[in-house]
Amino acid sequence: MKRTIIFFQLVLIIVAGFAADKGKIEVPLRFDRYYTYEEVNEALIVLHKAFPALTKLESVGKSEEGREIYALTINNPKTGTELSKPGVYVDGNIHGNEIQAAEVCLYYANMLLTKYGENEKVTKVVDKNVHYLIPVVNVDGRYHFFADANTPSSGRSIRVPKDDDNDGLLDEDAPDDLDGDGSITQMRIKDQFGQYKADPEDKRVLVRIKPGEQGEYTLLGSEGIDNDKDGKLNEDAEGYLDPNRNWGYDWRPDYVQSGAGNFPLSGVGLKAINEYIIARPNIIISFAFHNSGGMWLRVPSDKSIVIDPSDLAAYDVIGKEAIKITPGYVYQPSYDLYSTYGDFDSHLYNLYGAFSFVGELFKREQETYRENVTKPLPVPEPTTGSPQRGGTPEQSREQLKFNDNVVQGEQYKEWKAYQHPVYGDVEIGGWVKMSSRLPHPFMLPELVHRNASVVFLAAENTPEISMEVFDKKEIGRNLYQVRVRLQNKKGLPSMTANAVKTKIHTQDMLKVTGAKVIAGGKLTDNRLNKVTYKEKKPEIQFLAIPSYGVVEYQFLIEGKGEVSFNYESLKAKNATATMKL
Amino acid sequence: MDEATNEDGFEDLNGDGLISQMRVKDLTGSYFVSKTDPRIMVRADAKKNERGEYKIYTEGTDNDGDGEYNEDGEGGINIGISFPHLFPKSKPEAGLWPGQSPETYGIMEFIFDRPNIAMVHTLGSSNFCLFPPKAGRKGDANLESIKIPERMATRYGVDPTKTFTMNEVIELMKSRVPAGVEVTPALVISSLGLGAAVNPLDDDLKFYTKFSEDYKKYLKGKNFSIETLEAATDKDGSFELWAYYHLGVPSFSMSLFSAPKVKEEKKGDQSDVSAEAVEKTDKKSAKPAKSEDPSEREKSLLAYSDKALAGKGFVAWQKYSHPTLGEVEIGGFAPFLETTPKAEKIDSLLLVQLPWLIQLSKKLPEIILADQKITDLGAGVYRLELYVENKGYLSYPISIGERNKQPAPVVLVIEGDVEILEGLKRTPVGTIGGNQVKKLEWVVRMDKKASLSVKLESAVFGSVVKQIKIGG
Q1: Looking at beta carbons, which residues of chain A come within 8 Å of B408?
Q2: How high is the ipTM of this complex?
């Protein structure tokens, strides 16, 4: 641990100079720009230094390229140890290019810590829960997304080389930043036989020609040269091991699930995070932030998997409110987007009993340029194979006007002539790295706040179990009939129904000590006195307390003196009640 | 599941060094003592007017007093079923996910770090040397009868209820993928979500079948009886299945010993795991299992115990006063009797069987640059023909390796001061069948005196460079 502290100080010294030109990183954190990998670490350090009593900063492990993956724990030790409280896990940026996910994590930490003691609701959540935050899962990916030229969509992978084109070489033909502007944009070439022409209303937009019409351009794809001279451009870039297809639950090999990697958790950083999570079995809810599209995704990731209806109801408690907190987002099972195997949220739900959500941050439709934004533009038809994403010409025109007049041209690179070594005279231009899937920084504060508020709502809904002895009757000599009630005041159950069924972790227990328990069991109807007595060991009852639910137990206890009832749960906070016979 | 771990393991109550069984008289029991051999317990079949009289437990006590016996022993994950192919996720002993145990993870890491591994042998409970990997599993995609999912079908303008062959789907997809993307069967399988292969591919079954026949002859020649109880079939999540399906290499498991079978007219061999056999037994299993009294397996084991082990393979039922069950009898087969040879037999078993693994290794593919031909087309333009030969018996890769694209490619690299007019500088050779020669062609332009060499590059077969002389 000491070594880690020294390391943090080193990091602090190193990054202090780095960040100087962009404004000092201090508490409260600012969210009007994006943080590099180093700056995220510095933000975590300043948060930890400002709130040493409430936070713990540690390295979970190292990435493929040796970068540290940091976790910030927020826990108030005065209200209990970490493992005694319901755990809320939040991570982001598992895909290297999906960077605003880390800002949501940082914002959430900043919000909890700076409002602790000031805002009543925040104070309650901090006192009741423990939060585990890993803002950047794919640390190499974030580093390279900032440092290298990219498209908004490139650099998802973790840094495990892969021979994408089966030529025996690894990662030898990535796109190239020919014009040196830090972005990988598009290349087009004048071609009267091409399939595209300039849109008459905005010459920057390329539209497909109608049959019989004369073409103007051919789109050549992403900026680059044929580095390995195999007649294909940019076909073997860095990676590809998709860190969200490499988890253990229902993992499938690469020829079935692209990006799976050689075997489950072959990514070293992912393996370290998995071990971090295993050591925190109290995690009952998790959020993994991605971009983009505006979605709250829940399990299952494959249509063939059936989720227990009571778990779905618990998911709905969060999901159906989440879409009101983040207008325009949809809430749906992740297979509705597409089926995946080896994804993180299935791993957490199925193996560790956490209600796991994916947040797909940002809807590009928010980049509007019109008077009445409530009236939607025509819906684009799904297209495939087209190198230019973005839908209809109407949408492209609006996005460009937004770029021109709302963000002062920062998101679009105007087409410019370039002498290409193979193609000759081409033009390079299009949406830059920091666009499309990433909101312009001026929109970031609202995005981080709304999405963090969904995490907050989920934290508020973690189980809160109270217990009372609500009835006691002497029914014989030294023999008592005692009734105990356990109540969950919140929307998430004390454990998932799936975990009860599949026995992946210890079930909640109600233990009676202090006297001899003759019989004990679940009271299914307290008015008609219907009890199912457990056959063996009646002093230990196994249970789970549903969303906003009540369960009651009846015991026949022989003896004298004080009797204790202890509710023990892996996820929810334990509870105790005592009584005298 | 309860509040404790490993709290209820077995106990050797009678102190004989073996964990055998306990039988106890019980009105609700489902076993009775065999009329043919009183050592054997037979499951009662009510339809045959049989009634159970005994319950059977594993030797031990109910340490945690939960009403169950020995339900929570030491550990642990059974590594033998903890690999990713057909990982049995519903079995707790497989672990939570494939590779959860450091042993499994470490083995997978070790193997993937060595792309030159071209064949895998494992000594264990199944025997791919004698019985090819099991076929007839449900869930395999029929690649000659593919349906296009509705969403994609609309986009492609095809009928989602119609079926297509793999080649037809490849043609359909070609026009729809971005330039430069090669449409392979593997891409089709992943983009249409056709899933993993679960049965050995036809071409691979051919070599497995041939080698098993060769092996039988080999054993016969050594006077080694294979009239034994069948080896266990390949288990879901096993190492040997993973090696075949995920590494894409020939995987040979070998079980070294199984107790001899009693000689008897036998009908329908249950564990002869050829494709046809599995289909047959699948149909059979619809009928109620016939209860032999005792079964062929039990008879064989008893005979083996009596003849070869002087009766030590069976613990005679003996009365024992059990703390919770009361009066019980402890007895039954010695554990692992079926698969554990007598110590003095080990040498002879190994001497006969292990050399077969060397024989199998000799079937490995061997890829070489067999010949080259250069034709002068005039004006400094030449046609270059290279002949790549697989001198081995097995193809490279085998069928499953072609499908999962895991085996490292063999690449031909054109080097020297040449301009390639047709063809690639680096050309993956693709699949070459055993004892086959593949011709690859280039058109190049070069100076007559310029150097031209060809490199055959492979993680498995190493690298060889050959100078090519014009006119030579």
Answers
A1: 168
A2: 0.92
